[in-house]
Structures are given as C-alpha cells and as structure tokens.
C-alpha cells in the first residue's frame, strides 16, 4: 500500500515539473545572448591583416633590416670574389698561351738561325742578336754610313750594341777597343764579344762582333754586312784581339 502511494506521489511531481517548463516563455534564438568571457593574454598586439604576424618592435625591425643588408652585402662580395677569381683564371690562361707561343717561336728561330748561319745555338742564345744579324745581312758597305743604305764596320758594331744590348759604344774601332777588357784567346770568346783586326797597319782598322763557333758578323769593305770565320786565312792573318765590354759601360 505504501509503495503505491510513493509511486503516485512521484508521478504527480513529474507532472508539475513538466507543466512548469511548458509555462516558461522561450525566446527566439536571435535574442539569446551568450555572455562574453574575457581571457587575459597579456598586452594587446596589433594585427596587420587577417592571417599576418604581428609587427615586431622597432628595435627588432632594425635588427632584421641590418641583417638583410649584411646578407645582401655578403652575397655581393661573394659574386665579386667569384668574378675576380674567374678573371684571374682567364688572365693566367692567356699568359700561359703567350708563353707557349713565345717558346714555340724561340725554338723555331733557334733552329732557323742555326741552319742559315751554321752556328749551334742553344736555349740560352740571344735570339735578338741573331735576328739583328739576319736583318742586316747583305747591307752594302759605305764608309761613314750608318743605315741600311750603307754602313761601315764601326757604325755597324755601334748599331748592333745599341739595338741588341741597349748599350752605347764609340763609333770608331780604335775608341771601341778602349772600352773593352781584352779576351786572351779565341776559345774564351762568347757571343756578343767584340773582335779587332789590324789590317796592313800597326793600329786597329777593323771591328766585328763574335756570334759563336769561331764566326763573327761585320761590315766588310768588299761585301758589306756578312758572316765570316776567324779560321779563314785572311782573318786569321790580321786578327788582333777579342774584347768584352767593361761593366762600367
């Protein structure tokens, strides 16, 4: 009996609660306001645009700017270094190419002059000397002359020393002899040494320039500029001395 009374009482209470809920007015969803909640996140930060990061403080912006400029400067220096290295490499290649060409020319010139002059030239031979001789061979003799139209022995020696050795010597054989240190024997002669002759005279009358293998170049009164051999009877007869230009000159 008591159990039935409790069940009836519970049913009545549920009914009352249901009636009370239905009687409460329900507003439109639009009118429902959700209370704002404030969450503290520290100082507010300004946003540039939706999805962008906030602006950095001025001092950080300056640091970033300085870093960017330094990076660009470093990149520019690297480019300049690379270009400089490339330029140096090209310059080295050009220099090597020129050296190879010069070596090739020197080799061919050495062989050529050796053949036409009958002289065994070496790698240390003064090719400028032999080029000068080659250019002047056949020039006619003319007493007092100083050009390819005609030249005498002392003027030829003068011209050779001036153009080949960049040295000024006297313009007559006697005075030239006063500028040299005597070479005692023919075996001691070296290319470029001066050689002197006394032809039918007690004084020096002729001068030439030694070029090796007992040969010398000179301006002969009968045949002009030519190459002769010291062992020839005529030159052996009138040979006086060889001479090497003193260091003072």
Descriptive notes:
The protein is α+β, with helices and mostly antiparallel strands. It is 46% helix and 15% strand. It is built from six helices and eight strands, in the order αααββααβββββαβ. The protein has helices spanning 2-23, 58-117, 127-136, 153-164, 173-177, 233-238; strands at 146-147, 150-151, 180-183, 194-197, 206-212, 215-220, 224-229, 239-245. The strands form two sheets. It has a six-stranded antiparallel β-sheet. It has a two-stranded antiparallel sheet with strand order 1-2. A hairpin with a 3-residue loop joins β6 and β7 (224-229). α2 (58-117) packs across α3 (127-136). The chain starts with a helix and ends with a strand.
CATH class label of the domain at 127-245 = Alpha Beta
Give the helix proportion (percent range): 40-55%
What is the general shape? Answer: rod-shaped
Helix segment count?
6
Question: What is the succession of H and E elements?
Answer: HHHEEHHEEEEEHE
User: Can you give the mean pLDDT?
Assistant: 77
